[in-house]
Fold this protein.
Amino acid sequence: MENQEIIAKVNDLLIDEFELEEEQLVPAANLKETLEIDSLDYVDLVVIIERNFGFKVKGEDFANIKTLHDFYEYIIKHAKSN
Amino acid sequence: MPSWKGQSRGNVLGYKIFVFTLKYLGLSFAYFILRFVAFYFFIFAKSSTKPLYFYFKNILHYSKTKSILSIYKNFFVFGQVLLDKVAILGGLKGKFSYNFDGEYHLREMAKNKTGGIIVNAHIGNFEIAGQLLERLQTKINVLMLDAEHQQIKKYLSNVLVNKDVNIIPLQSDFSHIIPISEALVNKELIAMAGDRFVDNSKVFSVDFMGKKALFPAGPFYLAARFGVPVTFAFAMKESKKHYHFFATKPMYIKKYTNPDEQDKELKHFVEKYAHEFERILKKYPLQWFNYYPFWEDE
């Protein structure tokens, strides 16, 4: 999958699963503060990533994911190496 | 109720003193020393006495004198509970007696390998329940605040005797969700407090002891997401060397795709939990160990 395809898929999942609007999905958006992804959403995120991108999320990865850009980079890196 | 900032009373030095005293002087002597330690905290721990006074005076409606006396008693009981915890973790289980209400439910969860979430609270001595439940012969995971965990686990690692108890540290970046998810997928049991949360956690405001307080939705959503049962459990100190363990019948929480329906379902279970928590706390009012403003209007 190309980077743009992965980003589009991530955006689709965020819109479908977390009821976010497309215009909210800018790379600089902070997951917790801007997109209001809360603790329950993180539970869903873990399940959604495993189901859609085929890799297991590790606890230590969470510390480095603050913005949507970080999240895209993280998925791209792991989905491609999978 | 503000979110928990990750600091708890007690530190490694405190645990070292406890272990030394227990090892060389015995539990009764340790309790005697504790009277002075509790008095010290009663005089100097202003940040803890203020919310405790609110609890005794405004929540339990004690008189001014009884509230002040109860603050001292609360510190003393908290110290006893810590001493008991160290004694039990250190292998002195036989010195205590226990009775169990609802152990059967946990046995069934372990036997049927349903996995599940045991929701407890910062009352009584739930940490010891993990040790007591070793007779279930299943792995128990305990979600613990990271600030407590890092220091205390390091020190206690050489006195811990039950290797079936796995501690999962609660993190502000929610990374604890990963080991929790893995444990639930593997149908293991996880004990977690239902009365504390970190920033950005989803919470519900519900009636608790006559006033509104915030409780996290997380434990209940995890149960719904992973299709595991949830039980409310508490271990309360009844006398010097006796504990009473309570566990409710396991319940399943529905998973909805509609967020409003899901919130309604989760809130219903948070209310059930708060109700059970209140019932137990009213029986053991001195064993309240949340030393910070807990209620919304506090």
